[in-house]
Amino acid sequence: MLPSYEELSAWLPDLLSGLSISLQVTALSLLIGIPFGLLLALGVLAKSRLTKILALFLVEVGRGAPALVLLQFIYFGLPTTGLTLGSFTAAVIALAWNTGAYSSEIIRASLQSIPHGQREAAVAIGLNRLDALRYVLLPQGLRVALPALLAFSILIFQGTSLCFTIALPELVSRAYEIGSNTFRYFPALLAAGVLYASISIPAALLVSHVEKRAGSYAQR
Amino acid sequence: MDGAVLHLGSGKPTMTEDDALAAKGAPSEKGQARKPLIKLDKLSKHYGNHTVLDGIDLEVMPGEVLAIIGPSGSGKSTLLRCINYLEPPDGGHVTIGDISLNAAAAAGRSELSTLRRSVGMVFQSFNLFPHMTVLRNVSLAQERALGRSRKNADERSMQLLSRVGLADKAEQFPGRCSGGQQQRIAIARALALDPDVMLFDEPTSALDPELGLEVLAVMRELAETGMTMIVVTHEMSFAENVSDTVMIMADGKIIEKGPSQDVMRNPQQERTKRFLRAVHDR
């Protein structure tokens, strides 16, 4: 059942290049998605109705639709409107949207968890709204949000496996390909699973470490 | 200035309120000492059907220390928060120095920031920024609102921290400081903008009595330098001995106002007598 040593050394270059694509999609989705989530969170909290409605729409669609549906829609659906994207770009857009929608909720909740007096003090000492956000609210809010954002990042990394459905040669596609060439599905997918775990488990340990440390400045 | 301070300490009961204020304001602004620094006209505030402030008229002279006392829910804190528009009032006018805001019209951002820069506020729960050092807490607004350089701001902050006796805490985080120290830092932070008036919203209510004393000592020193102060407080001895004027509020109205010793020792209104009796009986 287990892959033999020869098999592993034959498969590993393919699997690792798949893993590399998975990690690239994850990194880009997070780099774009989390700042996008911050903007969406501010949009949802904004006073202007139009901004609020637009932000809410993007958040609700991004959270409401399964990531798989977003992927399929952007890769297979958009071309009918004339917009054709490569599978890598489509994957990043779909997952960044998904990340933005979820992280906006995490960030919004974190911002709202900061005691009201912090905002009042910032306003009372003459900071304008942007400075109050930049120096007082965001540094505290993001610290609260950090563990949840990191935990979500692991989910997105695992979510890249969905990109197998839009022909992106990431880790699962590679394992599947090996399986269909050799009929050794079980060991190939097992090897892929171990590779996922080799990233996810240390990352989860990091999250719980960060979780313990976050907010400790208040008690120091 | 020092002469006036000595006067206030020893000979206050024999002076009228106006004499005391003239003495305080006189050295720097002779001709203008008569003009109130803060003027509230028919200030009102409602939460739904509930009237929190019911047409408050109030004048505070430069250098005056006004204590506002009264039962909970009387609108004391709301009044304070309306003065710097943390809570925008619904009706009336707020005038501080040259800035005048009409509550009926929407206040512009630049007007509001000018207003807030001339008013320092100290909160019951300190509200220091926990993620910054003590020094940054005091310097931040100087840099962002006054445009001072980091170096100048830090120098000024260190002066102010020494003044409240906490220069050695500059590099610590607020969470490491006691409540009394935190409140003194909050006073330094508010002073950093060189405000014309300082508002104190029950500054000692969250502190145990011993720590409250060190905050009161700082406030007393501040009063002696001629700072204009409005203090919402339950500290009756501060109201009686440090403030020039005491104002009693109940149900969103001013019940009684006058020189502090008169009001505290010989109140005229039945409502004031009842309140002071309740306080003393505790």
TrEMBL record, chain A:
Main location: membrane
Record flagged with keyword Membrane: yes
One example GO MF annotation: transmembrane transporter activity
Entry keywords, A to Z: Amino-acid transport, Cell membrane, Membrane, Transmembrane, Transmembrane helix, Transport
An example Gene Ontology CC term for this record: ATP-binding cassette (ABC) transporter complex
Membrane topology term: Multi-pass membrane protein
Compartment(s): Cell inner membrane; Cell membrane
Record-annotated membrane-spanning stretches: 20-46, 53-76, 82-102, 144-168, 188-210
Pfam families assigned to the protein according to its UniProt record, in alphabetical order: BPD_transp_1
Residue span, ABC transmembrane type-1 domain: 15-207
Keyword Signal belongs to the record: no
Family label: Belongs to the binding-protein-dependent transport system permease family. HisMQ subfamily.
Protein name as annotated: Amino acid ABC transporter permease
Source species taxonomy: Bacteria, Pseudomonadati, Pseudomonadota, Alphaproteobacteria, Hyphomicrobiales
